[in-house]
Write a structure and sequence with these properties.
Elements lengths: L3 E3 L4 E3 L3 H9 L25 E20 L2 E6 L10 E4 L3 E4 L2 E4 L14 E6 L8 E21 L6 E5 L7 E5 L1
Antiparallel strand pairs: 1-2, 3-4, 3-7, 3-8, 3-9, 5-8, 6-7, 9-10, 10-11
């Protein structure tokens, strides 16, 4: 009763004796009718299309061989070993430049927002109308201890999804929606 269990990665509590007794003596086989009323509805728009992006959080990194394809057709390609133009990219924070055949985020500055969270440095490209595409790229952290971002379904600098790889302070991987 009231045990707090531990393993190598987490801790967890067990239900009390009375909770265990309740579930052992009562089957949960009946669903009671429920009605939820709300004074207002919050409609969250679905983002099902958009461009791509790359970025860092608390680190420096380089990105190369970036390619977006849809049904075998190449929609976008960035090969910085052949073309050093960055005109297709819109950088948001950070110091972005082509270096050693890759698009690199070089800013050593670690910024925090009002909540204390690390600010990310991003660069976006592509069309807000792309849908059902495959994004491939090569990424490598070159400094810092933070993570890398792979942005997809980007409408603009405020509406996007991002795959966080190696989140700051951990090895976590997760998807964020802005």
């Amino acid at each position: 009763v009231n045990l707090i269990g531990f393993d190598s990665a987490r801790s967890f509590g067990t239900p009390s004796y009375w909770v265990q007794w309740l579930f052992s003596h009562n089957r949960g086989d009946a669903a009671l009718p429920t009605k939820i009323q709300s004074e207002s509805e919050r409609i969250v728009p679905v983002i099902d299309r958009g461009g791509i992006g790359i970025g860092t959080t608390g680190s420096q990194a380089e990105f190369k061989d970036i390619k977006v394809a849809q049904s075998g057709k190449v929609l976008f390609q960035a090969d910085f070993s052949k073309d050093t133009s960055t005109s297709a990219w819109r950088a948001f924070r950070g110091s972005w430049q082509v270096e050693n055949g890759a698009y690199a985020q070089l800013s050593p500055i670690v910024e925090h927002d009002m909540t204390g969270a690390l600010t990310d440095f991003r660069a976006l490209a592509g069309s807000g109308q792309w849908t059902d595409y495959t994004l491939s790229l090569k990424a490598r952290r070159t400094g810092g201890t933070g993570g890398l971002l792979v942005v997809f379904r980007a409408q603009d600098s405020a509406s996007w999804f991002a795959l966080h790889l190696g989140a700051p302070g951990s090895a976590d991987t997760y998807i964020e929606r802005s």
